Amino acid sequence: GQNIDQPTEMTATEGAIVQINCTYQTSGFNGLFWYQQHAGEAPTFLSYNVLDGLEEKGRFSSFLSRSKGYSYLLLKELQMKDSASYLCAVRDSNYQLIWGAGTKLIIKP
Amino acid sequence: IAGITQAPTSQILAAGRRMTLRCTQDMRHNAMYWYRQDLGLGLRLIHYSNTAGTTGKGEVPDGYSVSRANTDDFPLTLASAVPSQTSVYFCASSDRGETDTQYFGPGTRLTVL
Questions:
Q1: A92 min Cα distance to partner chain B (Å)
Q2: So what's the pLDDT on residue B98?
Q3: Quick one: what percent of chain B has pLDDT higher than 70?
Q4: Taking the CB of residue B59, how many other CB atoms lie within 10 A of it?
Q5: Which H or E run includes B65?
């Protein structure tokens, strides 16, 4: 079967750095997405990786290793507004997105 | 309209009733999707449409139907609602371009009693 694994919850301190991991086992791979979802709101797109390596976008970076079936989202200089759930999704061989359950990130002052 | 809109925002429905959730996008995206989101689970695809006039089944299609008469609208119908269909429903669209990123509507919170 297809599987996306992420930690359920993480806690970090304002101003710090946090890394959210995602491992996947899917039938085929056509890209990996990270989305942010604030409570009661829709998911919003953060990043896309299709090749191995690091993609940097301001305070957020995303890394992919296809051989290891592994990605991480790195958030720097954490702000209180970064408190949200972070969703990892992989596009499979059928070109459909398979979603992880999300990681709830709690930021403490 | 900017992006994707969904209606209603929330709804309480008696079991056995018919319900249509509406979704409209103004981005001229070819592909549209319906997901449900339940606590502790990832988003699960119900139905999708790669282009107007075509639809396909996702991971959890039973009890739901869709139509795609034009590019902008993608309604989801529950023919006879059951309590297990209590969920938050998100509509999304994508342009089928290089990254084919999906963009989401604000969601409909549905409770079936």
A1: 13
A2: 79
A3: 99
A4: 16
A5: strand B64-66
